[in-house]
Amino acid sequence: MQRHSDDQTPEEARRDHWEMLRFLAVNALVGAGLGLVVGFAILWLDIGGVGTSLSRSLHPVLPTLMMVVPLALTFAAAVTASAVMLMPYRKKKQR
Q: In terms of residue numbers, what domain contains 46?
């Protein structure tokens, strides 16, 4: 059986998959970090009085988490999705 130039050995494919997973994980972490920064900036800049309202709350931790964690997850998903769309790949030869 003759191999095409684009075919990979199992070891090359395994290495390629790990590189791809690392690429996506790094992008997800960057997006989550960006979401955390945006969430805490909203609180720190007191946009819409959210920071003041939370500072006067009896239990400010849970509402803060309920605002910041979804932002981090949303940003992580958006950055990861954009990384998937822009992921470098080799085109398969037309058969």
A: 28-84
